[in-house]
Write a structure and sequence with these properties.
The chain is of the alpha+beta class. Helices cover about 20% and strands about 25% of the residues. The strands form two sheets. Strands 3, 4, 5, 6 and 7 form a five-stranded mixed beta sheet that branches. Strands 1-2 form a two-stranded antiparallel sheet. The radius of gyration is 15 Å and the shape is globular. The mean pLDDT is about 95.
Length: about 130
């Protein structure tokens, strides 16, 4: 039986995270690695909402769907990269984030950029996951 698991830490020798993420995530040897393409705020009908928050909601729904397609859940997520073209409503994003992660947060990077792959895309989130 493999007792190794994904572990997340915030070293006490450095400042605490400024958001809901973990400074370092360790993936055990021989874990399977999964990397998603950036998930965007398109709905099931292929339409983009004009509002950032609705795109955030759709993006998280798409993340859950792509994870479930491989039998993965939030506990398998090791890294999240977020790119946005306009200010994120962090209270709203974190409400979606908490529904996915509870309090076992992955490592995270956030960047604001001028545009994404299509002009209607306001947010894109890439997921890295591992299965032990």
């Amino acid at each position: 039986m493999n007792s190794e698991k994904i572990t997340r830490k915030n070293p006490t020798s450095m400042p605490a995270p400024v958001g809901n993420y973990t400074h370092i995530t360790k993936i055990p040897r021989n874990a399977e690695l999964y990397v998603t393409s950036g998930q965007v705020g398109v709905d099931r009908n292929g339409q983009f909402s004009q509002t950032m928050n609705e795109q955030v909601r759709n993006t998280f729904n798409n993340i859950k769907t792509v994870l479930e397609s491989e039998g993965l859940s939030a506990e398998n997520i090791i890294k999240v990269n977020i790119w946005a073209t306009e200010n994120i409503d962090w209270e709203f994003l974190y409400s979606e984030w908490e529904q996915l992660f509870s309090n076992e947060y992955p490592a995270m990077t956030i960047g604001y950029i001028t545009e994404l792959g299509l002009p209607e895309i306001k947010i894109e989130i890439e997921i890295w996951a591992a299965k032990v």
